[in-house]
Amino acid sequence: MKLAACNDDRPRRLRRPEEFAGERGGYAPWCGPAAVATAAGVTYASACALLARVAPERYPPGREIVTAWWRDLVAALDLAGVPAEAFNVEGKPTLSRAVREGLPEGWWLARVTDHFCLLEVARRGTARVYDNRLHAVPLSAKTHGRRRVTHLARVPAPPGAE
């Protein structure tokens, strides 16, 4: 049974990391649930609930989700009705190199060195980063550009993306 992202009572827009922190009593959100929440247009708590439904043995009730698995993020998005189409990553390029050398335009869920984020790739090899601490920040060496890419999946534009 799929859980529609529209079951959330939040506005259908890209929320900022500080809004996720507000849901958590002022604490910064973790990257896995934040990536799911942004891509699916759901609250941070709903993203954690999706992950718990996918793998209850890894994400038990009442425990914070600090570490997440790639396959669980993809499955949580699927449960929310958000398709994530795997993209073959050859070698382990930096995120900047992957974008510069032909990552197609669109929205991407990325797993880079010890981190998950969403990318909005635009023309001419430019991208903006959305994660648990950044909102629409241009990709650069300071914004994960030097991290190594291990997994990529194309996702639809998140609800509320312009």
Describe the structure.
The protein is of the alpha+beta class and 162 residues long. 30% of the residues lie in helices and 20% in strands. It has helices at 17-23, 31-40, 44-54, 70-79, 95-100, 141-145, and strands at residues 85-87, 106-112, 115-121, 127-130, 135-138, 149-155. It has a 6-stranded antiparallel β-sheet. A hairpin with a 5-residue loop joins strand 3 and strand 4. The longest helix has 11 residues, at 44-54.
User: Which ranges are low-confidence, i.e. pLDDT below 50, for 5 or more consecutive residues?
Assistant: 1-9
**Largest beta sheet, briefly?**
6 strands, antiparallel
Q: For the residues shown, what is the average pLDDT?
A: 91
Terminus-to-terminus distance: 29 Å
Helical/strand content category? alpha+beta
Number of helices: 6
Give the radius of gyration.
Answer: 15 Å
- Give the ordered list of helices and strands: HHHHEHEEEEHE
> Number of DSSP strands?
6
Tell me the helix content: 25-40%
Shape: globular
Describe the strand arrangement of the main beta sheet, using strand numbers.
Answer: 1-6-2-3-4-5
Estimate what percentage of residues fall within beta strands. Answer: 15-25%
